[in-house]
Amino acid sequence: MARIVVVGPGAVGGAIAAWLLKGGHQVLLAARTQYAELQVATPSGELSFTPQYVGRSEQTSADWILFATKAYDTLEARDWLSCVDPTTVKVAILQNGVEHTRYFKGMIAADQLLPVVVDLPAERDQAGHVLQRKTGQLWVENHGLGRQFQELFAGSAGVRIEYVESFAFAAWRKLSLNAAGAVSAVTLIPAKIAQNHSAAQLISDIVRECMAVAAAEGVDLPENLPDEVVQHYRNSAPDSINSLHADRLAGRQMEVDARNGVICRLGKRHGISTPINELIVRLLESTR
Description:
Blueprint: E1 3-7, H1 11-22, E2 26-30, E3 38-42, E4 45-49, E5 52-53, E6 64-67, H2 74-77, E7 90-94, E8 113-119, E9 122-126, E10 129-132, E11 136-141, H3 144-152, E12 159-164, H4 167-180, H5 182-187, H6 197-216, H7 225-235, H8 243-250, H9 256-270, H10 275-285
Parallel strand pairs: 1-2, 1-6, 2-5, 3-10, 6-7, 7-8, 11-12
Antiparallel strand pairs: 3-4, 8-11, 9-10
Helix pairs in contact: 4-6, 4-7, 6-7, 6-9, 9-10
């Protein structure tokens, strides 16, 4: 069994930590706020553990360190690397966006870095209490480090690892889904908003801008992706709330840049107009 540090045990990080604990691994949580019990309600039952923690100034041995923080917390969160041996630890980055390794280059050797695309619908109603709505899917490239990561979740009922030939393709495809979730964050209406024709058109426009920028970055996404994203939200539980929406409701900082801002930033680099995503960014930033 592996010894694993999970940085950022919020909704996604908390669920990941619980499934690793259930799998028999030794898990240490790295968090600003510590809680006495980790409870994750899942489709296959409730997981409950008394978590162990590692302090920012402590030294500990670890086979893996998993970063499950919000993208905007990466610069601060990476300080937790000082707790482990950076020359041997394997680093998995479970975040939204398409810039997973951006802030780790130069700190960790490339062959120790594993970017991970995450689709794990989970919501946190209070510290240590997580609702996981369905089996999580994590996508990694099919190489040595990716296969070692898959072994961490062998036999898990709540997390499934899938291999991809191109991480960039998987990340941009997931970004199209996350970017469209901003419609709920702006309107404060959960996934059922996709049933509305005008909202569905807006979702499609967001995705098309994402696809144009992805193509300029060398990633060709399927032409029917806008329809797929709309259908994804229509198939979701009507009351399900994505993390951007949840953060706005809770008054927390929102991951706007990693979801929609990056489309605008990279679009400008390539001379591609992204007016819908720019409007979304301005609207959400105005609510802070």
